[in-house]
Each structure stands twice: as C-alpha cells, then as structure tokens.
Amino acid sequence: MANLRAGLIGLGSMGRHHARNLRAIDGVDLIAVADPAGDSFGVAGSLDVLPDIEALIAQKPDYVVVATPTKFHEQIGLALAVAGIHALIEKPLAADTGAARRLAEAFASAGLIGATGHIERYNPALQSARVRLENGDLGDLYQISTRRQGPFPARIADVGVIKDLASHDIDLTSWVTQRNYELVAARTVSKAGRDYEDMVASTCQLEGGLMSSHLVNWLTPTKERLTIITGEKGMFIADTLTADLTYYANGMVHETSWEDIAQFGGVTEGDVTRFNIAKPEPLRTEHENFRDAVLGKDADIVTMEQGARVVEVCEAMIESAETGHFVDLTGTR
After folding, report:
1. Start-to-end C-alpha separation, the chain
2. What is the pLDDT of residues 90-124, one digit of tens each?
3. Where are the domains of the chain?
C-alpha cells in the first residue's frame, strides 16, 4: 500500500516539530509545505515553500496539518474540507466557538477525518492515568486540579493564556475523566500589557458533581505542568513535563479504638508509588493516531467536535471573568 501524502501549512515553532514527526512516522510522506512568512527554522529541506493553502491543495495531499496562527484556522480548514482533504488543526481549533463548530460541521458533512491538536492528551502520564481511572483504581472521583504555569512564550500573539494554555487542561480533564463541563467560573488578570489575559484561576463543575480547578499563567519564571486527580482511594499526580505518574494511596488504619470511631473518618497517608511507564513523544503518538484514523483504523484522536467544546469552555471562562458569574453549559450540548 502506498504511503499517505501529507502536507503542512505553518512552519513556525510548532510547525517545525510537526514536520519532524511527519518525516519520522511509518506510512507517511511529507510531500508539500506552505507558509507565506517563509521557512524561518529551515524545515522544508528539499521541498519548495508554497505561499498559501491553495498552492498546498494543488499538490493533492491526502491530509494536511495546520499549524498557523489561530485566526487563520477557519479559512484554511474550510478550504481543505471543500477540497475533500483530511486535516489535523492545531489547538485551539478556531478563534471562537462559532468558527470551531463550522469547522466540525464541514468535516463531518464531507465525511472527512478532522482532528484538533491537543497534544497533552497523548502525554504518557495522562494516558496511563486514563487507563487506571477506567479500571477504578481511584474509585469515585472527587476532584481534578491542574497547574500550568510558566514564562510568556514569544510565539503567541493572537490569543490569551486561556485559549493557548488552559485549553490543554480543559481537554485533558474532560478526556481523562470522560465527563463534560457543566459550570464554569473564572478570574483573569492581565499584567504584561498585552491585549489578552495572561493569568486565569478557574473553578468548574463537570458531570456527576466532579469539581475541577485550573491555575494557568504566563507570569511564572519556571514551568509547572501538574494534573492532580483525587478520589475515594487516593490521588494521582501526573507531571506532564517529566511524563511521571505517581499514586498516593489512602492509608489503612489497622487498629481502631472507641475514641477513633468517634472521630471524623477522614483519610490517612498511605503508600506512594511512582509508576514505571513507557514515555514516547506525545506529538509522535498524536501523529500516529491521526494517520491511523485516516487509514480507517481504530485510533484515539481529538475530534473537531471535542475541539469545539474546548473552545466553548474557554469562552465561558472569559465570560465568567467579565461578568463575575458562573456560566452554565448544560444547555449547549
């Protein structure tokens, strides 16, 4: 069987990593690249740098990876849908919920594979946590909290920290717990003089009464990427910088006195286990899953419908910060 023909538009800081993986995975040939700004990282190799999506479509790729600024995602994605070309579009899927939904509908109605590039879903620590949660290792889930903090990335110019970074946490939280967001509250600040927020603290409710909290900013001098999942049997901490997953078990009280029974039956500190898990590159895993989806194989991709829901939650955070109220999303599904 011939290899899939892949195209790439957007050769910036993320596009160069997509190009590397498109050249590395089995069953795919990178046949064309495009960027009107040129190839600042020198990733094109022997390929011509095409000027726009029309020139890329003319090369007849089977699928295209879109790594342009967010404001161009809808225009490029719709052109690919009209041309009958599958697409993996970087997160956030689009600049707003309406555009994201139009993309999802266009690819669905054309019978095409459309995916959103939420790379954190493929982090080995979270992949392992998802399996363990499905197996009931934590029992009933109580809370999931994320901390995603670090310095400002110069590559970001057209969205704030919510759509750029909190979108990761929204997707991974919904995916790892298999629950949708219902209520969203947030507080934002902008301290660096840009047009968008650079810090958000959000408190949310997911289906089944599960609480979530998300602390995200571009104002911290060191990077922190933690997902903390608490349940009736203990707690998982996934560090997605190191791809480590650690289990903190609730302790067992072996001797109980009458006085103990009269006290509150809270948890105690138990054993700590850091799991030994394989650590493939998340972006490689994302590309392999998208390739398999295009080939009609079983694959775990972030669908455009899921990507649109992430944008919806992002905009609910922004709305909540502006109004000072919870935003109810239960009527939007």
Report:
1. 40
2. 999 999 999 999 999 999 999 999 999 999 999 99
3. 4-120+284-300, 121-280+311-328
- Per DSSP, 163 falls in state I
Going by CATH, does the domain composed of 4-120+284-300 fall within 3.40.50.720? yes
Query: How far apart are alpha carbons 197 and 191 in whole angstroms?
Result: 8
Is residue 293 within a helix (H) or strand (E), and if so which, with residue range? helix 282-294
Kindly report the pTM of this predicted structure.
0.92
Q: How far, in Å, are 144, 253, 263, 273 from residue 268 at the CA level?
A: 19, 8, 13, 16
Q: Going edge to edge, which strands form the sheet with 63-66? A: 49-50, 28-34, 4-9, 63-66, 86-90, 114-117
Contacts of 4 (CB under 8 A, 6+ apart): 27, 28, 29, 62, 63, 291, 294, 295
Q: How distant, in Å, are the alpha carbons of 164, 171, 177, 188 from that of 203?
A: 18, 15, 16, 12
Q: List C-alpha distances in Å: 320 to 91, 162, 164, 210, 274.
A: 22, 12, 18, 19, 37
Domain 121-280+311-328 of CATH type 3.30.70.260: no
> Taking a C-beta distance cutoff of 8 angstroms, is the pair 63, 85 a contact?
yes
Residue 127 confidence (pLDDT) above 70: yes
